[in-house]
Amino acid sequence: PPCSGPTKTGARQNQSYKARRAPGRRRSKTKPAAMETQTSEAEKEMREWCVALPKVELHAHLNGSIRNSTLLELAKELGDKGVIVFEDVKGVIMKNDRSLPECVRLFDLFHTLTTDHDTVTRIAKEVVGDFAAENVVYLEIRTTPKNNEAKGITKRSYMNAVVKGLKSVEDVDVVINDEKLSCTPMSVLGGDTKRKKIYVRLLLSIDRHETTSAALDTVNLAMEMKDQGVIGIDLSGNPVVGEW
Ligand SMILES: CNc1ncnc2c1ncn2[C@@H]1O[C@H](COP(=O)(O)O)[C@@H](O)[C@H]1O
């Protein structure tokens, strides 16, 4: 947040980062195996430092932030119902290093897995909990409100399910509407406080393949939900599809 200066926590973490990083930078006369151990120690410490640092996350797609374990669980359920072939999907979920077109295709699968209110609520809850666990103190989640007549879902009910998820996080204080946010000192946003606090804001995405009228529905919905943490809209989706 703009008004917040460096905190004791931030300064201490920065110092400890320097102290920890030093050994990894020293020239070593040891054998390669020992060097490898040293590097992986340094990487581990760097990772720990990165996790401990209070952070802001300004570009998280809700359906792009689902836990692998949840995706696998949902895929297994759909596999058992015969909607998908679990073994095929499993490999796709666990694959790393995807190209953008592969990611876009993967979202079609994710959307098959997550289209019901309870699942949307569940993933919203888990995603916020996961970011808080990594010491994200301010989080902007973007997601595409979707109509799905067959499942009785409207853009509004989809968003209500998301907000319900944010409100049902148990171990962390989730603030979704706080006008004083920009002046909240960093010291109360994260760090060493026993119970974590995370400020969450929502952006409603308009997928490029949507019609103008569907896009306007999303804009109006964003306006209606201003008091529920919605702070704007986003243009998303496959960049080579549609006219947006
Ligand atoms: C360079 N990366 C990207 N570029 C463009 N759009 C992206 C994206 N990564 C994700 N999305 C958008 O986010 C949707 C999934 O989350 P939600 O269902 O909305 O929560 C995808 O369908 C896509 O429209």
UniProtKB/TrEMBL annotation:
InterPro entries: A_deaminase_dom, Ado/ade_deaminase, Metal_Hydrolase. It catalyses: N(6)-methyl-AMP + H2O + H(+) = IMP + methylamine. One of its GO terms (molecular function) is adenosine deaminase activity. It comes from the Eukaryota. Keywords: Hydrolase, Metal-binding, Nucleotide metabolism, Zinc. Pfam families: A_deaminase (PF00962). Residues 1-17 have a biased composition (Polar residues). Residues 54-238 form the Adenosine deaminase domain. One of its GO terms (biological process) is adenosine catabolic process. Belongs to the metallo-dependent hydrolases superfamily. Adenosine and AMP deaminases family. This is Adenosine deaminase domain-containing protein. It comes from Aegilops tauschii subsp. strangulata.
